[in-house]
Write a structure and sequence with these properties.
The protein is an alpha/beta fold. 35% of the residues lie in helices and 19% in strands. The protein contains 15 helices and 20 strands. The protein has helices at residues 27-39, 55-58, 83-90, 103-106, 110-117, 122-130, 166-178, 254-274, 307-316, 336-348, 350-353, 369-384, 398-402, 417-423, 431-455, and strands at 18-22, 43-48, 71-75, 93-96, 134-138, 159-164, 187-193, 196-202, 211-214, 225-230, 236-237, 278-283, 286-287, 321-324, 330-332, 334-335, 356-360, 366-368, 393-396, 413-414. The strands form 7 sheets. A 7-stranded parallel β-sheet has the order 3-2-1-4-5-12-17, with helices on both faces. A 3-stranded antiparallel β-sheet has the order 7-8-9, covered by helices on one side. The protein has a two-stranded antiparallel ribbon with strand order 6-10. A hairpin with a 2-residue loop joins β7 and β8 (196-202). α5 packs parallel to α8. The longest helix is centred in the C-terminal third of the chain and has 25 residues, at 431-455. The N and C termini lie far apart (54 Å). The model is unreliable at 180-223 (pLDDT under 50). The protein binds nicotinamide-adenine-dinucleotide and uridine-5'-diphosphate. Uridine-5'-diphosphate binds at residues 103, 142, 285, 306-307, 310, 322-324, 327, 329, 331, 369, 408. Uridine-5'-diphosphate (UDP) binds next to α9 and β14.
Length: 460
């Protein structure tokens, strides 16, 4: 820990605080604890039913770690433990991460899902409100549900066909760049205005010779492909403007989103009526090391974790990655370490974070699930030194994979205006880079154990 005074975004010294972190033993909690122990003077009262993912902090290999005595683990199930209120009273800030949050549970264990995400969070909100404690509550991007755009008919004029020209643009640039006399003089930029994309060529030494070439001038180029695009107003998700659109009650997938939405509304109302100081975080597919489990290794063999761990498990076992309903859904993935930076800014800048709901995601890392599978196959081959899978993917129906009542969010792009304005935060890590470091971790942590599990003869 640095001994120089740490300053907040307004240049004021940050005071050390005690944080009661509920769900500290999970994926996000473990990274947040690591960050707080490694880079801040804050103390953590870590509450969870599991501690494996923070064992390295609780029982460090060396005695002289900078966080000795700053983290304390309390094995508590918040459903039924009276010690919770005492811990909240001891804290300056409460962070609630505890939840059932794997989609495979939403339609198969809807009661547990609703109880965990709504009922079990109620006492936390109540104790914070009654004891005037600030609360950072973890919600989800799933509260947005489906996008408005997903309801537009396929042939709607509001969906536009755009020629995708990136390759031809690069090709043209490369040709021009290598032509005599043009070298170092040509600047070319893709510019999107409304639905229209233009390539702008500019010679810096003679600005008047700027030529604007509509991309439709290059329809003959075989590198062009078609992309369906629509006005971002139909799909970009804004905290203070987008509606929450869920499927019917039989689609029990939405039990999680609905419970999270109701607890958000309750926290918001506690803020409005009882002056609760709160911040709500809506994570957009945070991924990285320690996320979930590998079935049959450090979790149940029949368990279905979130997509990163499902695909990692397939890659470790050298079996095709399963694409649910064709893998057409789109997600934006953010590296856990980028996201944790945003949470630390919220923790240490209460005046800027209180009363806000923040999207935390990386709008630049959008892929379809199919593209994610293909990229993971390529990256895993690179980091493991094994050849990539010859049959990288197979299609499975959602009914077969998740059972009755599954439904999906079609697309999740976070609007970044609010977090940018309040905290000046932006994500940094590209999808390729975050997969490279995450899959290096997965390979190092699990490859040997999976090999041994596969080679064990089946019990008769
Ligand atoms: P996680 O499952 O790894 O962590 C949740 C932790 O809460 C677990 O360690 C679990 O043991 C603990 N917990 C659950 N019920 C508890 C109880 N009754 N008492 C004590 N501890 C309990 O999940 P995560 O990915 O770290 O997610 C943390 C939060 O962020 C959740 O609220 C989740 O809904 C939200 N979230 C995460 C993502 C993401 O991308 N990872 C996306 C959307 C929302
Ligand atoms: N998915 C998939 N194969 C898998 C696991 C998940 O195709 O083995 C899909 C899932 O249907 C969803 C997306 O991947 O469209 C992301 O799933 P995840 O479990 O990470 O949670 P979500 O983003 O839906 O909350």
């Amino acid at each position: 820990m640095a001994s120089v005074a740490r300053l907040d975004l307004d240049g004021k010294p940050i005071k050390g605080m005690t944080i009661c972190m509920i769900g500290a033993g999970g994926f996000i909690g473990s990274h947040l604890c690591e960050k707080l122990m490694g880079e801040t003077p804050h103390k953590v009262l870590a509450v969870d039913v599991y501690s494996d993912k923070i064992k390295h902090l609780l029982e460090p290999a060396e005695a002289s770690v900078p966080w000795a005595d700053r983290i304390q683990f309390h094995r508590i199930n918040i459903k039924n433990d009276s010690r919770l209120e005492g811990l909240i009273k001891m804290a300056d800030l409460v962070i609630n991460l505890a939840a059932i949050c794997t989609p495979a549970d939403y339609n198969t264990r809807p009661l547990d899902t609703i109880y965990s995400n709504f009922i079990d969070a109620l006492p936390v909100v109540k104790y914070c409100s009654e004891n005037n404690k600030r609360l950072i509550h973890f919600s989800t991007c799933e509260v947005y549900g489906k996008t408005i755009g997903s309801f537009l008919p396929k042939d709607s004029p509001l969906r536009q066909v755009r020629l995708h020209f990136r390759l031809s643009f690069l090709l043209l640039t490369a040709i021009c760049y290598h032509s005599k006399g043009w070298s170092n003089k040509l600047i070319s930029l893709p510019v999107t205005v409304g639905f229209h994309t233009f390539t702008v060529f500019s010679l810096p030494q003679s600005r008047t010779s700027m030529a604007v070439t509509a991309v439709s001038f290059f329809p003959y180029c075989s590198f062009l492909s078609k992309t369906i695009v629509m006005d971002p107003a139909y799909f970009v998700l804004k905290e203070d403007a987008s509606p929450c659109i869920f499927g019917s009650i039989e689609k029990q997938r939405w039990s999680y989103a609905c419970a999270k939405q109701l607890i958000e509304r309750l926290i918001y109302a506690e803020g409005a009526e009882n002056d609760l100081e709160f911040t709500i975080v809506r994570p957009f597919n945070w991924i990285g090391p320690r996320m979930d489990f590998i079935p049959g290794i450090d979790g149940p063999s029949e368990g279905v974790p979130r997509v990163l761990a499902c695909f990692s498990n397939n890659l470790l076992r050298r079996e095709p990655l399963k694409l649910v309903d064709g893998g057409e859904s789109q997600r934006t993935f953010i590296y856990i370490k980028d996201a944790i930076e945003a949470v630390l800014l919220m923790i240490e800048n209460p005046a800027r974070a209180n009363g806000h709901i923040f999207n935390v995601g990386n709008p630049n890392n959008e892929v379809t699930v199919r593209q994610l599978a293909e990229m993971m196959n390529e990256v895993y081959s690179k980091v493991s030194g094994e050849p990539s899978l010859e049959v990288p993917t197979i299609d499975v129906s959602s009914k077969e994979f998740y059972g009755e009542g599954y439904d999906d969010s079609d697309k999740r792009i976070p609007d970044m205006t609010i977090i940018n304005r309040q905290l000046g935060w932006n994500p940094k890590t590209s999808l390729w880079d975050l997969l490279e470091s995450t899959l290096t971790y997965q390979h190092r942590t699990y490859a040997e154990a999976v090999k041994q599990a596969i080679s064990k003869p089946l019990a008769s």
